[in-house]
Amino acid sequence: MGTIIVGMIVLCVIGLVVRSMVKDKKSGKSIQCGGSCSHCGGQCHMR
User: Per the UniProt record, which residue ranges are transmembrane (predicted)?
Assistant: First the structure.
């Protein structure tokens, strides 16, 4: 029973991470650098 509960929690966390990545991608943020160009100079958005 404990294995099933832990598995469901892990699946929920993975789902939330994927949902966040899709939301960021739709809003124009880059997945590679997190949308912050201060450290990459905008190079990751030119790919």
Answer: 6-22
Q: For residue 2, what are the contacts with CB-CB under 8 A and spacing of at least 6?
A: none
* 13 vs 35: CA distance, rounded Å: 22
User: 5-38: per-residue pLDDT in tens?
Assistant: 999 999 999 999 999 988 887 877 766 665 555 6
> Are the C-beta atoms of 21 and 27 separated by less than 8 Å?
no
Q: Is 32 helix (H, G, I), strand (E, B) or coil?
A: coil
pLDDT per position as a tens digit, 36-45: 556 665 555 5
Quick count: other Cβ atoms within 10 Å of Cβ 40?
Answer: 14
